[in-house]
Amino acid sequence: MDPRLEKYAKLLISVGINAQPGQTLVIRCPVDKAPFARMLVSEAYRVGVRDVVMWWGDQFISRETVLHAADEVFDTYRPWKADEMNTLAREGAAFLSIDSSDPDGMAGIDHSRMIRQSRVFGPAVKEYRELQMADKVQWCIAALPEKNWAKKMFPGVPEEVAEAKLMDAICATMRITADNDPVEAWRAHNAALNERKAKLTAFNFKSLHYVNSLGTDLVIELPEGHYWDGGNSVSAKGIPFNANMPTEEIFTAPKRDGVNGRVVSTKPFDVGGVIIPRFAFTFRDGRIVGVEAKDPRHRELLEAEIALDEGASYLGEVALVPYDSPISKMDVLFYDTLFDENASCHLAFGASYPNVRGGADMTEDQRKAAGLNQSITHEDFMVGSRNLSIVGTTHDGREIPVFVDGNFAF
Ligand code: ZN
Ligand code: ZN
Q1: Which of 88, 143, 199, 242 has the fewest CB atoms below 10 angstroms from its CB?
Q2: How many CB atoms lie within 10 A of CB 201?
Q3: Position 272 pLDDT exceeds 80
Q4: How far is the CA of 352 from the centre of ligand 1 (A)?
Q5: DSSP assigned state of 31
Q6: 316 C-alpha vs ligand 2 centroid, how far in Å?
């Protein structure tokens, strides 16, 4: 057994989900990762949880169900299943999910069956979902290697080698080494992220100016009252937790109509399995008015993505990630947003997070008036590079370096 797994389990229980004495912990885990689930359970009882509820999953069985179950199954749900989820969330349980799946494991199935199922089950678990989305309960998602995922990331080497490489990659992103204490490393990492987000919020920048040697020259205005988010969240009971592990980004919302200039992507962008190595967007008054890609088919794919609805051609996220962060330095594509969005400074076209004061409780019209973008899509694309510079301009005209040579200036 890899000794790093023990450290990983401790890290997830004490920092990721931060399970509390007397609390119920729900663990979702694939059945073939049961040895790791057992470590999580032992560690959870060591910190004094009341009890652990296991929700086992299996991608193969999920696939078989979608392929072969009776058709009416997808228009119904079992009320006791929804009741269990809602009740646990209402009682203040914490929800830890272990993701270990084949990125192509559900390829070729009839997606309309899954959509029908979520149409009936989604409203039934509204209470659970809302408590989680608003960070009122602790929740955490983290990953373990899976063989087909490893083979996709590291093609051309034997399966065991690929899986070992993926485990090394995950441990590097999780700041787990043979001789460190990752719990300490994450406490320091969260403290650093929290300090930076507070500093950025206090500057109250009017705009950010991005420039690099690849041809990026972009000004992004930020809305009145915006704040920066990132690092750990805090539950309704005041318990800090990391909803996603790993996490490197600090992010806010751009001002919908305040984006001008050109930005060049710096990492491969995946549109439904097609990998676009590089592209550029030109913005005028917030809207994407130009799409460049070497391959005309790639340009067409991108044009279709930003034409999904009105808001799809405007930005919805501004995220800062240092070029020297562990995920960035690895320079591999994980085919999993949990990791890939932490690899580089990124922007997203589509919906905004409600990152203005009072934004979470605003109506749709109020969000629009506050400068936040709305869309059914939200797609991250990477723009960070070794020599990216970002200069912030304050409302009284001061210019403050935010990024110098790809990393934070402060
Ligand atoms: Zn992001
Ligand atoms: Zn995003």
Answers
A1: 199
A2: 18
A3: no
A4: 11
A5: G
A6: 8
Q: Are residues 226 and 138 in the same domain?
A: no
117 with 69: CB under 8 angstroms? no
Whether the upstream peptide bond of residue 79 has omega within 30° of 0, thus cis, is no
Angle between helix 34-46 and 3-11 (nearest 10) = 50
- Quick one: 85 and 154 in the same domain? yes
CA of 380 to the centre of ligand 2 (A): 5
Number of domains within the chain? 2
pLDDT of residue 331: 83
CA 264 to centroid of ligand 1, rounded, Å: 17
- CA atoms of 310 and 286, how far apart (whole Å): 12
pLDDT band at 181 (very low <50, low <70, confident <90, very high): very high
Reported as a single tens digit per residue, the pLDDT across 222-252 is 999 999 999 899 999 999 999 999 999 999 9
**243 Cα: distance to centroid of ligand 1 (angstroms):** 13
Choosing from 158, 173, 188, the residue where a domain stops is 173
CB 339 within 8 A of CB 143: yes
Alpha-carbon distance 326 to 171, whole Å?
10
**282, 391: one domain:** yes
Place of tokens 């399970």: 19
CB 147 within 8 A of CB 162: yes
Are both 217 and 366 inside the same structural domain?
A: yes
Q: Distance, CA 378 to ligand 2 centroid (Å)? A: 6
pTM: 0.86
Residue 246: the pLDDT is: 96
Residue 128: give the domain boundaries.
4-173
- What span, in angstroms and rounded, lies between the C-alpha atoms of 152 and 334? 9
In whole angstroms, give the CA distance from residue 62 to residue 80. Answer: 19
- Rounded to 10 degrees, the C-alpha dihedral 290/296/298/302 comes to 30
Residue 148, CA distances (Å) to 159, 249, 339 in order: 8, 28, 17
* Residue 192 covered by a domain: no
47 CA → ligand 2 middle, Å: 33
Q: Is the pLDDT of residue 273 over 80?
A: no
In whole angstroms, what is the distance from residue 18 CA to residue 21 CA?
A: 10
Strands 269-271 and 229-230: unpaired
**Span 67-101, pLDDT tens digits:** 999 999 999 999 999 999 999 999 999 999 999 99
**Residue 75, in any domain of the structure:** yes
Instruction: Tell me, in angstroms, the distance from the centre of ligand 2 to residue 342's CA.
Output: 10
Write down how long the chain is.
Answer: 410
